[in-house]
Amino acid sequence: MKKKSTAVAFPTIPVVFVGGIRENRRPMYNTVGMAVTDEFESIRTETTVEVRPKEYGINFLFEGKPLGGDRGRDILMAVKEFLKRADLDIGLHIESRNFSISSGSSDAGMAALVAALNDATQADMHLHDLAQIAMIGSESAIRSVYGGMNEIVVDPHPDLYGVQILSDKDLESIRLLAVTFNYPSRITADEIHAAIRTHPWFRNRVEHVNHYWIPRIRAAAHNKDLKQLFELAEENIRNAHYLLEEVGLRVRKKPIMNCWLDVEELRSQGLFAYCLQGGGNVVYIATLKEQLSQVQRELQGKGWQSQICKVASGPKIVRSE
Prior knowledge:
Layout: E1 4-9, E2 12-16, E3 31-38, E4 44-52, E5 58-62, E6 65-66, H1 69-86, E7 91-99, H2 105-121, H3 127-134, H4 142-146, E8 149-153, E9 161-166, E10 174-180, H5 189-196, H6 202-222, H7 226-246, H8 254-268, E11 274-276, E12 282-288, H9 292-301, E13 307-311, E14 316-320
Parallel strand pairs: 5-7
Antiparallel strand pairs: 1-4, 1-14, 2-3, 3-8, 3-13, 4-7, 5-6, 8-9, 10-12, 10-13, 11-12
């Protein structure tokens, strides 16, 4: 067993929007997501796990402070589940920090946590098991655990599991331009999950996800048809936001809507440009690396400043002793 391990993991964005979960935080349908970071991998969560005597207990600090509430409880549950599966009776001191993350931080946080736990204890736990444990703290953490573009499979398997459909290497030709909007508050995942289920068309969305979007996204990924893949992704995400907006929960305020419209205009000019947005205040515009400069220049001309990002890998161990 090691003394200390530090892991980094990367935040995620939706390809198929996660909207609506069961009481056990299990998504109500299969979803697809993608891990992202900037080109220097400075957009990340960094988590350090130190092994201590069992009398120390489990101490978790986020940004230097104890984390309470439901989030703190869920993280503690995940750590205890890891120790149970690894058959370990030890104390742990854990510290986690976010760097430049605007959304998807809970996925990255849980992925970095289980990766650091696995390395520090040398438990050699399978990726599937790490993903299951990470899901205790974030219902879509599989996205960060696997990295690249991956699907969370809900049914008929008794447990959630992840399938990587394209790796970060497979998506090397894709770049993302992150446009951040400075709103004072952010709508939480729980608010989104609760609101979208009240829409009378929610069941229709679930059926469409299961029988239209997911099969076609799988096929597009298999065929490396990136244009169709991101067309489907934007269509799915737009549908989720429409439903939320119609029940009074608006993530896409007017400036964001204007950005979406400007991206549509870029496509009418023949450019590869598609909007991906979860519940946060960042719109990610997917484009091809070969068109990156032109798309960024066109966006800037319309008043949108952007940061260049890429598809990220799964967690990485950056320090270990």
